[in-house]
Input
Amino acid sequence: MKKNRMPRVVALCFALAFATGSLAADPQVLDRARKLLADSNPKQAYMELIGAPEMTGTPEYDYLLGVAALDSSRFDEAIIAFERVLAVVPNHAGAQMDLGRAYFALGSYDLAEAAFRRLKDSNPPAAALQALNQYLEAIQMRRRETTPGWTGFAEMQLGYDSNLTGVPGDFGAASQQSFNITVDPTGNSIKRDAAYLEALGYLEYSYPLSRGWSVFAGGGARGRAYYDESKFNILAGDLRAGAALNNGPSQWRGSLGYQHYAQEGDAPGDPKPTNDRNTGNAILDWRYAINTRNQLGLGLQLSSVRFPDNRIDDFDQVYLSASWLRTIESKGTPLFYLTSFVTNDKAKNTFDDGVTDKSKNLVGVRSYIQYSLSPKLQVFNALGYVYRRDKDEFARSTTVGRGRDQFGEFLVGLTWQFQERCAVRTQWQYTRNASNIDIFDYDRNEVSTAVRCDLF
Output
């Protein structure tokens, strides 16, 4: 979710502001600690400072000690240090902010909220206000995990898709390269573009048990209607239930789910095959908060994907993922989220030869960056790359031995929170699938504007 010095610039500025306020402070110790913090070495800074206990009670020393302890996951010691600062300098904004962060890291959400709200009431600068709002939102999310209740959202979207069937522009030439025959495009192989209207929503109820455990169940629905391309309208549903464990910095979440995707399509045949698919899966996610700005995650998903009208595409998937979430307490409160994954997709059925099937492997990575222009206005960007490799030769072509695809994604957008629970999101997404089998080589543009509101 990388090293960055900006989160500690504020800390160092506060420390400098008080550096002339006490003759008891050893400037060499403080200077060395500041440099270590600026170099993202809080553990060494903590050892440097803890070796000078005679400076305890000096605001600049206590603040630097609190910062070093907080960033070294010594949360109890950080709280004590920040409270000593505030006892001497009640309006010390840096100590107030970091005191809230320390309480948040310990799971003391009431105390964290009180600290953040006191600082918010003091009319902080825009960058600090954005960080405060993010922490307050995170506190509400954590509380929902420990109290019975509903969560959910509803969204309405207008957009345009330049290639909703995901096919090459010159299908005849592509079929010649892929199958050594020239075929005129029909049905699903015709390149189509259309405007669309989409609605989606999700509801989930969670119930806490004890010792950090809770259970949950929920469901969602999504519908997309294309203008003048009604055969490609989409109706999808999702049901899910599971359990979660909140154990301090570690969070576990396991669930079982079922998804149905329905799309008529325009394939020839009698009876006419559809693009429908059904998916059952089991998911286990683990997230670990290294500190208040960094979170790591691992995920395992086992899925069974079935196509009722196209059984050759049926497969079982093992999906492994890793993620890193990083927030930066500087101007714009940047957020960075990086995910990577690898899959093993095992086909359930073979072609007529009884040997060849559509088994494959996928490897991918995706980055997401968000930057706040103001407390209610954010810009975001995503970049993605996925590599596909077919396991069997001639699984998708009669002329190309082993299929290989490279899929790229570029996304940019803007989000405006116009009400406490509602936001407008406008985005442009470009995707490109480059394949050595031309019939699977295509690009696609999608622009959309959506309004999303949290229901609770």
